[in-house]
Every structure is written in C-alpha cells, then in structure tokens.
Design a protein that fits this description.
147 residues; mainly alpha; Alpha-Beta Plaits; three-stranded antiparallel sheet; 52% helix; flat
Length: 147
C-alpha cells in the first residue's frame, strides 16, 4: 500500500481548507493512511463512512473514485513527507522473517463462511433496496408538491 500523492485545492491561500492527499480504494485503506498521518502529527479526515450508509463500500467506493484522505492545505507538504517516510519504512521490512503466529479456528471458520450468514446478507441487501426506494419516493413526493 504505497499512497499516491494528490493535492486538489481551489484556493491554495487558505491553509485551513481541506485538500485530498490520497484517494484510497477502500475505507479501511483510507482509515489506515489517516492513522499513519495522525501518528506523524498531521490531522487527517476520512469521510468514507457516509458511503457505507448506502452500501457503497468496496467496489462501490471505487466506482465513485475511491475514498479521499484529506488534510489541511497548510499541512499538505508535511503530510506528503509523513507518507513518504512510512512507505520507506514499510519497504524496509523483511516480511519473510516476521512471525505472525498460527491461524486460530475462529478465523478459519470466519474465512470459510464470510462475515454474515446468507440470511444476514439478504437482510442487508433488502435494507439497502428499501432505503433507496424511500429516497426515490421522497424525491418524487417533493417533485409532486413543486408542480
């Protein structure tokens, strides 16, 4: 996971404006990068949780361009330095010599059956469909009142 450096700003003169320093492919990646930045003394914001409310996690967030990690414009250069230093440290680890222990039975079962049971996945999907239908009906009702 080597972060890409992005910097979007409409007014670089405002150091408190939030700018995107990295666009992650998942909320997990974005939160991890934000944690690295915070550990390096740079405040970071991730707004990917809002996507999860609509079921747009994983491939859905990639369809929307990813999950942005944002910092204040005044901290952008320091943030880039923190991410470069972290990438260097991560590349210097010999992962073949790291002992991560044995996989336990609970992790093996979870990997075999997934996070949710079939009925849990059906319930989650039904909830998403109902939420989208409620939004569409609400918009249609508003449009009906305007006409």
């Amino acid at each position: 996971m080597v972060p890409t450096m992005e910097h979007e700003s409409s007014d670089p003169a405002d150091p408190s404006e939030l700018v995107t320093v990295h666009v992650a492919s998942s909320d997990f990646e974005a939160q991890t990068i934000a944690a690295v930045l915070r550990d390096g003394g740079v405040e970071a914001a991730v707004f990917g949780a809002a996507l999860g409310a609509f079921g747009l996690t994983g491939s859905g967030s990639r369809l929307l361009g990813g999950v942005p990690v944002q910092v204040r414009a005044g901290d952008i250069e320091r943030a880039k330095g923190v991410l470069r230093a972290n990438a260097y440290l991560a590349d210097s680890v010999d992962w073949d010599s790291v002992d991560v222990g044995e996989e336990d039975d609970a992790a093996r079962r979870l990997g075999a059956q997934g996070m949710f049971t079939a009925s849990g996945r059906w319930l989650a999907q039904t909830g998403r469909v109902l939420a989208i239908a409620a939004i569409v009906l609400g918009v249609l009702a508003l449009l009906g009142q305007c006409m």
